[in-house]
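Practice problem: predict the structure.
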Amino acid sequence: DSIIKAFIVRLFQFFKEQWFTSLEINPFVVDDTGNITCLDMVAKVDSCELWRQKLQQQYISRVKPFGTKSHPSETIVESVDAKTWASLKLTVINPEGRLWFLLWGWWASVIVMDTIVDHWLLHEVANYWELSWNPDESSNRTYVNTLIETMLANKKSDQYLFVVWWIANFTDIVALVKPLCECIVEHAPDLIKQNITLVMRRGGLRAEEAMHLLHET
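Answer:
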């Protein structure tokens, strides 16, 4: 009837004004006076709109799918990600896994994960990752330290930390490698005790300077 039609029109306006990528209401009810109440609603925005909302001082919070539990390390990285223009993501898939990844550049994560799957090693993958859009040194240090501490926490020997920076990337590699070197020195006794192997794939801007820092460490 006219009440529901008017509601749909206004809802669509709201959808466009807030730049949602999806909006679902299931269900809504109409009472005797014609008032409409949404009993359940979920809406999504992309990262661009999330940034716009912050500028407008509106409030959108990120939530995980129903029933999902966050690993403490994920919460730390999420707090850093919320404060920077860059993108820092961490998902702990299997805290008992032996393959840990620290990769800079989104495409690096996609290609490396595809390669791991091709070699039937998905069951050993401990985390999914992303550091892109040139994070600053402080953000990188928090991320690297969190990842290394999470890896060491499972007490397993013979684990691997893959460090990959992407060639086609504007990220400042030195700003990434400096905190990595600091964390390696800080955690050196435990890294040696648990026989952690560092595997690197180099490339990108200032790669030679970054490799020099690693060799000096």
